[in-house]
Amino acid sequence: MSTNEPPPEQPSAAPPPPPPPPSYGEPSADYGAPPPTGGYGGPAYPPPPAGPAGAGGYSAGTAWKYGWDKFIANVGQVLIAVLVLFAVNVVLSILGRLVSDSLIVIWVFSLASWVISMIIGAGIVRFALDITEGKQLNPATLLTPHKLGEVIVASLLIGVLTFVGLILCVLPGLAVMYFTAFTLYFLMDRPELGAIDAIKASFDFTKNNAGSVIIWFLLSIATWFVGALLCGIGLIVAIPVVLIGTAYTYKTLNGQPVAA
After folding, report:
1. Which residues 6+ apart lie within 8 Å of 137 measured at CB?
2. How many CB atoms lie within 10 A of CB 126?
3. Which of 26, 36, 211, 215 has its Cβ near the most Cβ atoms within 10 Å?
4. Of 20-24, 68-72, 217-221, which gets the smallest average pLDDT?
């Protein structure tokens, strides 16, 4: 047997199977994939909604401009409110002196003047809040007793504390005026609050927003001072501008919406 025979032929490799036909309607590669992850492997939730605008969007200059713009836009009704307040005080003061020389009668008329001033003052504050809420102004608001008992109690307490504070080197009186400046706004805006609670709420509000409120407080005093210098007539403009600006300050720093 010859040893030069070729080796037996090796079988060739099997051909690869044909590719599978394309399938239609097959879910995409992302179907059923686990949700995307955020930091540290946790699920990526959408960001929380932004909170209401507060002190971050507030400035005393913006508050003053808002008060001025709204005064101009509602000048007729606002002037009526302020003039009624002045007229009532003047008329009752004159009547008290004309009716009798008795000190008791004068005191009675003075008390009546003060109570009516409180009604109108609370009405003007409610008026200012209505402006910031975009409500239709109603002149009857001025003479509507809004929580009259609570307004009188709060005004008496603030008046006594301010008087005592002014006697004690003035600065304590100014501190009382500062910390209680928003009492009527809380009373008119928050039906559930009484006089004491509204004073406490004003104290907390001014303390927690001291940086913004102090600037507004000083700007308000400057506005009143300039108004008084103009023979008192300037107060007819200064009073509503400050009250509306204070309503804007109250609403904005409390995170409540303000009508444009």
Report:
1. 74, 77, 127, 130, 131
2. 23
3. 215
4. 20-24
